[in-house]
């Protein structure tokens, strides 16, 4: 009985076949656009503040209405309170330890960025955000930027 084996393919032929296949199935334009948009959201040289579990303190707002988040990196803490209002989202935050003059935050969504100067007590607020993904960038004079991980907010 004779056994038939498929012809062997050398490396050059395999690479040429892969190149041909790649040329016939280009990346869709909308995928390239989304990739470029995601790349534009990066903050070079930034440290990422990791989320830390928080409990809703007694006497603050109802846990059904407000969501509290805390992010830390090193000694820096960014605390956020997220409150749904008429299908949109209000965000109030505090940076600690007390920030130096000129400290700013950027509350970013994939489609818009709202910048605020942080008060002397470390507080800031942004109202009327669309629901969806957001991240906060904290910029302090003399320090590298700090970004929170992306978090999804719902009204």
Could you walk me through the main structural features you see in this protein, from its secondary elements to its overall organization?
With 155 residues, the chain is of the alpha+beta class. The chain has two domains: 30 residues, no CATH class; 107 residues, Immunoglobulin-like (Sandwich), CATH 2.60.40.10. Strands 1, 2, 3, 4, 5, 6, 7, 8, 9 and 10 form a ten-stranded mixed β-sheet that branches. The longest helix is centred in the first third of the chain and has 14 residues. The relative contact order is 0.17.
What's this, in brief?
With 155 residues, the protein is α+β, with helices and mostly antiparallel strands. 17% of the residues lie in helices and 41% in strands.
Averaged pLDDT, please? 85
Shape: elongated
Largest sheet: 10 strands, mixed
| Helical segment count | 2
Going by helix content, strand content and strand pairing, the class is alpha+beta
Helix proportion: 10-25%
CATH architecture descriptor text of the largest domain: Sandwich
Fourth-tier CATH superfamily name of the largest domain: Immunoglobulins
Distance between the termini: 72 Å
Order of helices and strands: HHEEEEEEEEEE
CATH class of the largest domain: Mainly Beta
Instruction: Calculate Rg over CA atoms.
Output: 24 Å
Assembly form of the protein = single chain
Low-confidence stretches: none
CATH fold-level name of the largest domain: Immunoglobulin-like
Determine the strand fraction and express it as a percent band. 35-45%
Q: In the residues, how many domains can be counted?
A: 2
Q: Care to count the β-strands?
A: 10
